[in-house]
Amino acid sequence: MNQPTPEQPAATVARLRATFRTGRTKPLEWRTAQLRRLREMLTENGPDLGKSSTEAHRTEIDFTVREIDHTLDHLTGWLRPEPAPVPAHLGADASAWTQYEPLGVVLVITPWNYPAQLLLAPVVGALAAGNAVVAKPSELAPVTSAALARLLPAYLDTDVVAVVEGGIPETTALLAERLDHIFYTGNGTVGRIIMRAAAEHPTPVTLELGGKSPAFVDRGTDLEVVAARLASGKFLNAGQTCVAPDYVLTDPETAAALEPALARAVETLYGADPSASPEYGRIVNERHFDRLSGLLDSGRVVVGGTGDRASKCLAPTVLADVDPTSPVMRVEIFGPVLPIVTVPGLDEAIDFINDRDKPLALYVFSESADTRGRIAAETSSGGLGHGLPPAHLTVSDLPFGGVGESGTGSYHGRYSIETFSHRKAVLEKPLSPAR
Ligand code: NAD
Hints:
Mean pLDDT: 96
Bound molecules: nicotinamide-adenine-dinucleotide
Number of helices: 13
Structural class: alpha/beta
Strand content: 15-25%
């Protein structure tokens, strides 16, 4: 039997735009009904999305359901017009306010590492703001991509939400279209391609990128607690998390004590053989497995350092005595390798951070309010997490996004409404009295 010819990207965008022009997506009731359907999709099909561990449930499904619930609870308030004071020369009968309006057809392009959450959380914001959405899952997570392509049309308004599967050719074709916003999550090289394509129309972009997120460990902290929290934030999803602590920055004495504490923390989390733990993830593909294996000789192995290419399992690895110019410190690791780099103290740690690209997240473990305050004031990062990586992104009322090389724009909760809306300025002056 012949398969139906898939709709071309241009036709998809045109079809969604035609629906948007009817005004169907604008009423609050339509938006909340779509969000409720999305919630049903997740609760009825969660395990079908292609990952099955408790970790996947927590980071993909539960996270997105929370985002939906938070949005449903607050959307009316977020969308309320905001009055603005009117200058005296316009008269006391003039009034002014801002009101949100949806942008139109938005494109959401996503990576493979949290393939459901990173697609659905922006979709929640785009729909809540009243837009039509073309969603492009990552071809590197084909099971989730296929599941989303099957489920989203089954639950949502198919003339408003479309899933376009594929890789570079399909994304390139979509980028050639006139869109009203492009929301891209992934690496900075492709981020630049997105920005260049957007410049043609010009279309606003949000770039959720990555980079090396440092974790500064101060003297005098409880290193058992630090190690446990560092290890669970780092080795979640086998380190393939954009906000995972990329490397540890600390003084030499603290480093020496932290090494065995990290080895114990890894064993507590995943047992003596992490490859046998159902909680420990795998590397997405052989290419990344080989790339990560090539970083293992950048330092002295404290724990881990082994891998099995056939099963794409790379042990949770901590490297000590790492030179700042070594390969592992030149790229975003995006895998289960945690280098420890030493600096004499806080001043040098701040310089070390500021000498490099602005990170997506910066983590600080310090008992000193003075140290925490100095780092907040003297460094720049997308987010700043004291004591618990990467929990800041689970706070629905905080914006999530990067700065500089780690991205531009933000989302989650009300910040998604900001991203996927135009904030229109309105002035109203009565026609009478005529003065
Ligand atoms: P990826 O390879 O899945 O690519 C992301 C998307 O870009 C995919 O949908 C892919 O089809 C598309 N793409 C790839 N090449 C393209 C091209 N030439 N033209 C147009 N589109 C193209 O994922 P990735 O980029 O390897 O993801 C990992 C990176 O993403 C890391 O740097 C990580 O830190 C970052 N990341 C950031 C966040 C965040 O929220 N800030 C979240 C997750 C990952």
